[in-house]
Amino acid sequence: MMYSKNTILYSWHIKVVVVGLILQFFLLLHMQYKTTIEEVDRRLYVGAYNIKYYLGEDFINKDLGKNSLSAAETFEKFTSLHEKGREVGVDYLYLLIRDRDEIVYAALSDKPQEIGEVKNNGFWLSLTETGDDSLEETLKAFDSHKPVYLGSSDMWDSYRSIYLPQISLDGVKYLAGADVTISNLKREVLLKTLRIFLPFLLLFIILIPLGRFLARSFWERERLENHIDHLNKKDLLTGVYNRKQGLQLLSHYLNRSHSNDRFFSVFLVGIDNLDSINKNLGMKAGDNLLIILINILRSVFRKSDNIMRLEGNKFLVMLEDFDSASLEHINKTITQRVDYFNKHNKNNYFMKVNYILHEYHGEKTRDFLESALLELRYLKDNRNSEERKMQTDILKGIRQKEFKTYFQPKVDLEREEVSFEALVRWLHPIKGIISPNKFIPLAERSSVINEITKIVLEDSLRAAEILGRRISINLSPISLDNNDFFEEILETLKNSEFSNLISFEITERSAINNFEETLVKIRSLNKVGSFVSIDDFGIGYSSLSYLDMLPVREVKIDKLFIESISISKINSLIVKAVVDMGRVKNFKVTCEGVETLEQIRVLSHLGCRIFQGYFFGKAEKLSVVAQNLSSQVYLKKIRNIKLMSTKKPPLKVVND
Known about the structure:
The chain has 656 residues and is an alpha/beta fold. Helix content is 55%, strand content 19%. It has three domains: 7-188, PAS domain (Beta-Lactamase), CATH 3.30.450; 243-392, Reverse transcriptase/Diguanylate cyclase domain (Alpha-Beta Plaits, 2-Layer Sandwich); 401-635, TIM Barrel (Alpha-Beta Barrel), CATH 3.20.20.450.
C-alpha cells in the first residue's frame, strides 16, 4: 500500500514537471519572439539604409526614371541586391517612389530564377498591382522623417517591413524598404527557442528516470524501515502494540505515575470463546473476532489511550489520568456493540467477552499485571459459572414445561383482520418471568434453541386450531441452518391440518446467509402451506434486491424505523419504498413496535395497513387471546382506531 501511494505521488509529480516544461517552453518562445523582433528590426534598418550604396550612385542620379535602365541592367542590379539583402539577413530590399497618384517599386530584389517572373524584372512595378495592403501606411511614410515599422502582406506573402524615408542626390524623395517574411520570422523564433530549450529537455529526459530511481529507492527504504519498525512494535493482525513493545510502554507509564503521583489504570479485556471459535470455525473466524474487538475498543477509548495485545485473546488499554466516572458508559457501550455484533453478524458465530478496570497502586509491573489477570480470570470463572447454571436451568425448564407461548396481535386495519405472533416466555419458579433477551442467546449457543422452537411450534399449531387465525413463529438462524431440525419442522407441518395457518419469521441475516440454501428451504415451507416473513427488516442488510429474489409473503419493518417515523424523513422514505415494493411484488408489509396513534396516522399515509405493537396489545396467554377474539375486543379497538385516525390531529404550535 505504501509503494502504491508513492507511485501515484510520483506520477503526479511527473505531470506537474511536464506541465511546467510546456509553460516554460511557451514563456521562452514569447521572450525569443520579442528579442527576435528587435534583432529583425535592426537588420531591416541596416538593409534599407544601405540600399543606396548597394545600387550605386549612377542608379540614384538618373532620376529613377522608367527608362533609366535596360532590362539586362535591372536584372543584374536586382539579383545583386538580393545577395546583399541575404548578407544583411533580410528577404527583400526595394525602393518605393511616387509616380503621380501611384507608388511604384523603382527597385525590387529577388532570386535570379524568380526576378524574371516579376513584371519589368521588378522595375517600376506598381504597389497596387502586387495586392499590397499597406498603401495607406506607405503614403504616410513619405511624409515621415523617421523609420516606419509595420506588418504588411501582398499576393505572395506576409511580411515584417521597414520604410526608411530618403532623398537622393538629385533631390527625389523615396522610401528605402526591407522585408522579412512572417514565415521566416516564425521559423527563426522557433529555432532560437529550440536551441535554448532542447538542452533543458534533454537534461530532464536524463534526470527524470534517475530521479524516479532515486525516489523509488528512497520510498522502498522508507517502506522497509516502517515495515521493520511495525514488525518490532505492532501486532501484525490488529495493528496494536505487541507484547514486547507494550510492556515497555506500560513500564514507562507506571514509572511516570509512581514518580509524578499521576493516576493510572488499565482496561483489560479478553475474548473467552476464542479458542472454541478457532477450533470449530477456523483461525479466520477467530482473527475476525479480534479485529472487531479492537475496532470497538478504538471507538470507545481516547486516541491517546494505547492498546497492547497482552496474550492471544487478551488486550490491555493503558489509561493515564482516566476519569473512572465514565467507566459505566464505557462498559455499557462495549456491551451494546458486542451484542449488536452477535445479533447481526452474517457468519452465525458469537463473541463472548469479559473486561475489568484495574487501578495502579505502586506495585511492580509484574505484580500489577498478575493481579489484573487474576481479577479478569475470577470474573470469567464466575460469569461462566452463571451461564452454565442458566443453561442447566433452561434444560430443566424445558423438561418441567416452564416455557410458555404467548401471542401478540397483528392487526390489518383495512380488512379488520387479526393474526398473531407467537412469543416464548420463561416462567421461572423462583426468578419469575425471565426476558428472552437473556435466555435466547444462551439457548442459541448451546443449540437448546431447537427444543424451545419445538415447544412454540406445537403451541402455535394448537392455537391455530382454536383461534382459526394465522400464527407466526420466530425461526432462529441456528434452527434454520440445522438441516436435520428443519426436516423435523417440515414433517410436523405435513402431519398437521393447520400448517396453512403457520408462518415463520426469519431475519435478514438468516435470509441472505447461505442464500441459495435458504431459498430452497423457503420453497419447501411454501409447499406444505406455510410461508416466510422477513423480520426486523432495515437493521441488517436492508437490501431491496434480496426481497425481489426471495419468495416471501411478508416483510416486518423494525421498530427502530417506527419510533421516529413522525420526525425522520429518511425513515419515511425507507418505509414508503418497502410498501411500494410490497405492492408490486405482492407481499404484506407489517410495522413493528407501534405505540402511538400519531405513528399509525403517519404510517397509514405512507400506505401501511398492518401493525403490531403495544398500542394494539401485548403478548398474552392463549386463553386471554381467545376470550378477546370471542368478545370482539380487537375488532372494537380496530374500528375505534380507524375512527380516531381519520380525525384531523390538533394544530401543533412551535415556538421559535
